[in-house]
Structure to design on (462 residues):
């Protein structure tokens, strides 16, 4: 029941039936995949909505494909779990196999991630726990899904997760070793190394894929990115992604360790079973860790932190100098034996100088004086807007990357490049305001922050 990647149904030359199996009325298409098309339908006997998958006419005469299609029905029929899409019926209509399944109301995890970017630790763990529970039920019946990915995870209105589309599932029995020559099983962004290299695949391959999905929920991107399947497969086999708790400070170390263990290259280094993963997820702490200083620290690029640590605050030195200058007339008057007068009395000097210094030079109230401080302030504003749902995830990511690029390039002769980067960023913000995805007030707030960052860069370049 993969409703993602909905494609227009190509002309087949074979008219679609109105009623399948003399019982299921086809109401509307939900999507068209490699094995067939999925419809929302009505069960005319029980008067309920169902999902009906009709095998593609081009595959009807392909015996291995027919066997694979019917295997999905048998695989699902064996699994009884609230976290697996239920199968109700299967059969053939005019020699065309069909499968009748539970119609899941709600959305898919893939659509949710496109909408929100990433999921908070508590909700991500809850969804992953449901996925692990469904996989445990399937694995108990000897069924390996082999294609666990966000588009195959359905989220109900109550936010429960259900696994669907067992079309390439494998039954781990000697009499059920169906393969399709020349076809690749699984989805490269979530594929276990042993699956990608044609090795022996067992239930632990599903756990690797679950680790990839959990990584994406927590971080907001897939573990690996590439221009093609070959690049992705190479990275799954040879590269280790960073731990999620290092990428997202709010994620606890225990959860980061669990994700890392799920994505271990060697299946023997992964948890032994989906049930073990389910229990681990139920016990892992999900309360966010408070950042050590401010929100800006959590999102500030590493170079900015390093540079900021090397710089000493300027305002204590300024306070000492101003204080010395303010006391100089009094000192001269005392030496000369004269009266400094009421206009320059020590009391008045003491009451005016510190207050003006606090209002104009206080580190908490003054505008940022360094690129690092200005970058931190801009990132803090962006994070606050993102937490409030007031900014598009992509725009927020563009701001973070631009600040990182500017700060990493600062001091290496890239002032012109920095100016171009910040101007491009302001144009993106203006477009977001024009399109209504960002309010005008928040747009000005971000643009002001970019201007301050640019001013500090120019000041240091003088």
């Amino acid at each position: 029941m993969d409703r993602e990647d909905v494609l227009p149904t190509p002309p087949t030359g074979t008219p679609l039936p109105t009623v399948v199996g003399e019982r299921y009325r086809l109401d509307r298409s939900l999507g068209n995949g490699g094995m067939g098309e999925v419809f929302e339908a009505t069960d005319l006997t029980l008067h309920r909505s169902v999902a009906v998958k009709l095998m593609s006419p081009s595959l009807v005469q392909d015996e291995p494909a027919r066997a694979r299609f019917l295997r999905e029905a048998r695989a699902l029929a064996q699994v009884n779990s609230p976290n697996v899409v239920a199968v109700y019926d299967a059969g053939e209509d005019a020699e065309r196999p069909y499968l009748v399944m539970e119609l899941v109301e709600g959305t898919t995890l893939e659509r949710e991630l496109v909408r929100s970017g990433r999921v908070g630790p508590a909700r991500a763990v809850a969804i992953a726990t449901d996925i692990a529970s469904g996989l445990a039920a399937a694995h108990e019946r000897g069924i390996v899904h082999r294609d666990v990915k966000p588009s195959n995870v359905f989220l109900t209105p109550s936010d429960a997760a259900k696994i669907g589309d067992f079309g390439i599932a494998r039954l781990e029995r000697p009499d059920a070793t169906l393969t399709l020559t020349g076809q690749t099983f699984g989805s490269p962004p979530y594929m276990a190394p042993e699956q990608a290299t044609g090795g022996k695949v067992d239930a632990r391959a599903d756990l690797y894929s679950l680790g990839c999905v959990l990584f994406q929920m927590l971080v907001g991107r897939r573990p690996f990115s590439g221009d093609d399947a070959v690049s992705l497969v190479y990275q799954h086999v040879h590269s280790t992604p960073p731990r999620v708790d290092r990428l997202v400070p709010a994620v606890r170390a225990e959860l980061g360790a669990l994700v890392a263990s799920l994505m271990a290259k060697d299946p023997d280094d992964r948890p032994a079973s989906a049930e073990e993963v389910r229990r681990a997820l139920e016990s892992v702490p999900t309360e966010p860790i408070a950042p050590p200083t401010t929100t800006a620290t959590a999102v500030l690029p590493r170079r900015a932190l390093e540079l900021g640590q090397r710089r000493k605050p300027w305002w204590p030195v300024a306070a000492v100098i101003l204080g010395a200058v303010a006391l100089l007339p009094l000192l001269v008057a005392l030496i000369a034996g004269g009266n400094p007068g009421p206009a320059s009395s020590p009391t008045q000097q003491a009451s005016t100088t510190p207050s003006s210094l606090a209002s104009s030079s206080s580190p908490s109230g003054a505008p940022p004086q360094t690129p690092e401080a200005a970058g931190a302030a801009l990132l803090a504003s962006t994070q606050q807007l993102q937490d409030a749902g007031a900014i598009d995830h992509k725009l927020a990511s563009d701001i973070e990357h631009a600040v990182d690029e500017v700060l990493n390039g600062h001091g290496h002769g890239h002032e012109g490049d920095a100016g171009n980067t910040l101007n491009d960023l302001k144009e993106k913000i203006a477009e977001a305001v024009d399109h209504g995805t960002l309010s005008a007030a928040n747009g000005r707030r971000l643009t002001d922050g970019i201007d301050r960052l640019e001013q500090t860069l120019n000041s240091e370049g003088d």
